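FIELD: query
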Amino acid sequence: MEKLIIIKYGELTTKKDNINYFIKTLNDNVKKTLSSFDVSINYDKGRMYIECSEEYFDNIITKLKRIFGIHEIMIGYKFNERNIDSIGNNTVKLLKETTFDTFKVITKRSDKTYELDSMEISRKIGGYILKNIDNVKVDVHNPEKEIFIELRKDAVYIYFEKIKGIGGYPVGTLGKGILMLSGGIDSPVAGFLAMKRGVKIEGVYFESPPHTSENAKNKVIELANILSEYNSSMKLHVINFTKIQEEIYKNIPHEYLITIMRRMMYRITEMIARKNNAHAIINGESIGQVASQTLTSMTVINEVIKTPVIRPVACFDKLEIIDIAKNIDTYETSILPYEDCCTIFVPDHPVINPEHDKCVEYEKLINYEELIYEAVKNHEIIKITNENKYQDLL
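FIELD: result
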């Protein structure tokens, strides 16, 4: 008998012709995440199997819960003997170590050449249990103990519990995006949701020293650190936005400060995306939440770039976003009281329906192209790994 961890894939099994690519990417992501453990990983189109010392099971399962592409995780038992008597005896042997009153046997027979079908196997194994374990009975509707038997070509697998995985597609299967990562609640959630759809992310953060503090930057680094636990690793591009922001504040009518500032941020993010072979920009904008997130504002701000913008939380309300932030462990960091450059110099009455022509006219008042080029040329890159360390790559 061999005790091991079994992974079910979930949604990615719908990929048909591309399934091998998706499963291989998941395997690579699992290997990378578990690189500090002595494990053996094997997989086929139906399951992934992780063999290791039982003392590592809890820590490995904790890490597996943060890997996209995993639907369920089971601690199972592998038997090479596939005859019905062997399956029945091994099932009874495992169950005698537990206590229960009612049970149900659920069989999955992926090997269709086996002489018994799934229902017949379940009935026969149920008979073994009733004959060999006292005072138990079958309850197909609300059993105290569920017994899962998987008959595959190589072996028989038995398990009793399923641990819910995070689902989605393996990170990296559907390209790369640049996440506009502020220190707020929304953008880390947007990054998480993009990763769940298989998008590998890099972050871009706009700092404005001395108007923003080192604490604000460290807060964003920590948010990127948390996201890297789902992303294997992450690059954070830090843009010094001070000169651009001061020029905007000095020359632009104050009701248009946020609109023009966001247009500059979009231009810079698109340049970062192109330099890093990213296919989309991702941000935490939610419709109507602030002045720059009305549909009119989004249209006017978005028009300065050609790169697609993905807004995963656009139709979520704030409480829904907060719930996700708490579940992914970014919330407590996001609410630390350090201002980012989006919250400084905020006018009392920002325009909520900006006009294209006015934006073009106002932007002529500043030499923004040169300032943007300088900011991108001299920006800082921080490499963040899921070992909760980061390395300056200047």
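FIELD: remark
The mean pLDDT is 93.
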